[in-house]
Design a protein that fits this description.
9-stranded mixed β-sheet, globular
């Protein structure tokens, strides 16, 4: 078997999430991490040295890195408001990009990223690792098979009872969003990807920060600058309604279940403390011969176990599919063009909450 070319990979941003990227890159025998950069002096060098990459150069800006290091691909692990800037620099240097979520802060930034990737003819994939979760894929496959008919309503669920992160996550100039950008974009992707990502049309939303701004619940209340709760009513093409809910903190164990209602059935992913120890949290509802059928979707492998791949760790899947896409020169595992709709919803929620009214979503032609 022909040995794959060893890809040269760089890491932009050496904070917490970069370590998850590095862990998998170091495990791949067809990848060599050739450099890193971070705006905090010394952090990129410390990051590389931790993984014994003494010979790999460290920089403080991505512009310096692309001038001095040849790369096939790069992970962008910087804070949200710099995703677009860093990705565009990499594309202009001819580098494939895996960008951490959320895609960007504004819709315009997302559009600029997709345009730059297309112009450079390079991969732009966004880091939604739950796409590679085994049960997540079961839901996508069930809905994609037509088992529940036409989906006309979706809702996101979950949320954290207490789970406000610190650092740049709560600084507006760096994060842009709060819980919306941190975990809300995952919920949007989970719901929309299952039905093929229909185009969003309008958003009516509200966002609050009652917990983050209260020192009783968050010690950094004086410097908390983003949302800790958001809810939205989203209209999508194809007469689909999407109710979005997400929270970093609340006086409840869940905001409800994740749900897809279809003309022939429904899928529900239960959330909350009681569901954590269940063999499966996924329910399938339909009717057979006039009888209501309520079924648990179990985490079983396909009938012919020897003819199929075993479930993989979702982070492994996220990193491996990016590397494989570079080898094949595409397609992107989680295409930027698709996640532009996710970004448009985040942008719409932010604008609607700020204005206190429903807003229209207009996505420019790419």
């Amino acid at each position: 078997m022909k040995q794959k070319k060893k890809l040269k990979i760089g890491i932009v941003g050496a904070g917490g999430i970069a370590h998850a990227h590095m862990k998998h890159y170091m495990d791949f025998n067809d990848v060599e991490v050739v450099g890193a950069c971070d705006i905090i002096p010394g952090r990129a060098r410390e990051f590389l040295d931790k993984y014994n990459l003494i010979g790999a150069p460290a920089f403080e800006h991505v512009k310096d890195m692309v001038k001095n290091v040849q790369m096939d691909g790069a992970s962008v692990c910087t804070y949200n408001t710099t995703h677009a800037e860093c990705c565009i620099v990499l594309f202009e240097a001819g580098v494939h990009v895996l960008c951490e979520k959320p895609m960007s802060f504004t819709l315009k930034e997302g559009v600029d990223m997709v345009r730059a990737a297309r112009k450079a003819k390079k991969i732009l994939t966004i880091g939604f690792q739950p796409r590679h979760d085994f049960m997540h894929q079961k839901v996508d496959n069930l809905i994609g098979s037509g088992a529940i008919g036409k989906v006309y309503y979706m809702q996101s669920g979950g949320g954290r009872r207490r789970g406000i992160p610190g650092g740049t996550f709560v600084e507006k100039d760096k994060a842009g969003f709060g819980c919306l950008g941190d975990i809300g974009c995952y919920s949007i992707d989970q719901c929309l990807n299952a039905i093929g990502y229909p185009k969003p049309l309008t958003v009516s939303a509200m966002a609050t920060n009652y917990f983050g701004k209260n020192p009783k619940y968050w010690p950094g209340a004086k410097t908390f600058e983003v949302d800790d709760f958001s809810v939205a009513f989203v209209r999508l093409e194809g007469d689909v309604t999407f109710v979005f809910k997400q929270s970093w903190a609340m006086h409840a164990d869940t905001l409800g279940d994740t749900l897809w209602l279809g003309t022939e059935g429904a899928i529900k992913v239960t959330t909350g403390f009681e569901s954590h120890n269940k063999e499966s949290r996924i329910m399938y509802y339909t009717d057979v011969n006039g009888q209501h059928i309520d079924s648990v979707v179990l985490p079983t492998i396909p009938f012919n176990a020897y003819a199929s791949e075993r479930p993989m760790d979702m982070w492994f899947g996220k990193m491996r599919t990016f590397v494989d896409a570079i080898h094949k020169n595409g397609p992107a595992p989680v295409p930027g063009e698709q996640i532009l709709y996710n970004q448009a919803i985040c942008d719409g929620i932010y604008r609607s909450a700020k204005l206190g009214k429903e807003v229209e979503i207009k996505i420019p032609k790419i």
